[in-house]
From TrEMBL:
Membrane topology: Multi-pass membrane protein
Broad class of enzyme this protein falls into: hydrolase
Protein name stated in the entry: Rhomboid family intramembrane serine protease
SUPFAM superfamilies reported for this sequence: Rhomboid-like
Organism annotation: Streptomyces sp. 900105755
Annotated TM spans: 38-57, 115-133, 139-160, 167-185, 191-210
EC number: 3.4.21.105
Amino acid sequence: MGTSKKEPAKEPKKQPKKDRPVPVPMSPEQMIAEARKAFFVMFGLLAVVWLVQLANYSDHYALSRDYAVVSGDVGTLPDILVAPLLHWSWAHIESNSGPLFVFGFLAAYRGVARFLGLTLLIALSSGLVVWFFEHGDVATVGASGLIFGYFGYVVVRGLFDRHLIDTLIGIVMGASFAYLLTVAVPGTPGVSWLGHLGGLLGGLVGAWLFRDRRAPRPASGDLTPRTPAGGRTPQPRPDSPRSDLYKELDDLGLL
């Protein structure tokens, strides 16, 4: 009677992991199309804010009283999403309209869908900070929280996305409007500094949450070899994390 031999179990072959696709940089035509969308989105948002103000004024600002965020009042929690559209006076809405359009456009021109998610996040963060931490029976409305959120997002977005143009825009906006931060600290009279601070935090978090995801750096190096005789600057591979930067520097005439 013969004995049977057991063949050693074969280990399953491991399939090579597929690299994540690298986001393709937007062409100038796509960027112009997104900027056009951003313009009309912000124009529409500003139109809604002013139409709401007309209705609010005609009713002696009853909307602001009825839909304001009041700290600790559970009934006002849903109003967190409505309060940014309301204001207490014409001076209030006039002071908010310009910064809202400018920072909103700069936040939206790289993608309207991302911008809508960012707006929701900022409205929630600004309203919740007011709801949890405001003292007294204070009714808070206004687009200032959105403005500070867009400002924070625009200033740091380029750093998270590793995008040269957005980084330069962030530096310019941060240097030009740094004074805005003075009304996001305690002790500022007549304004909801908590709403400003909450919006700013939401914008900074949004810059990280909605950042461009990049593939990891290739182990074999970033640059494709070039023959010395060609005399050309080494160019990055298409899958290099620095390919966008090289392309933008080349478009600007810096390479």
